[in-house]
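Ticket #4471: structure output looks truncated?

Reporter: J.K.
Steps to reproduce: submitted the chain below (124 residues) through the standard prediction queue, then opened the result file.
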Amino acid sequence: MLTEKFFDVIKKEGVVSIVSWGIDVPHVVNTWNSYLVVTSDERILIPAYAMRRTEKNVNQNNKVKITLGSKEVLGYKDYPGTGFAIEGTAKYLEEGSEFDMMKEKFSFLTRVLEVTVTSAKQML
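Returned output as attached by the reporter:
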């Protein structure tokens, strides 16, 4: 589901927006492309330090939407810049081998946001 172009984008720096919603209004939090780690089964792991509102929302409604992009990767028709809209389900990891691997890469994290991708669309 995740294309080569998606992997090209996360190799370049850019802003990632994560949208979650519980029973209240949507909430947006940001991170960086370089913080995304994709597992062999295409789950996206994201280091979380704060993200407490996101966690509260995910505990009520595990659906999330993510957008990301880079102006350094060619998009459709070779225009400069491309981006992706990702939909998926999320949960937080506080232990285990994937948590340990992420903690080694990103010492600041307190938890890991794990997103199981259900849809990935190139937008530009």
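Triage note (M.O.): checked the attachment and the full token line is present. The mean pLDDT is 97.
Status: closed, working as intended.
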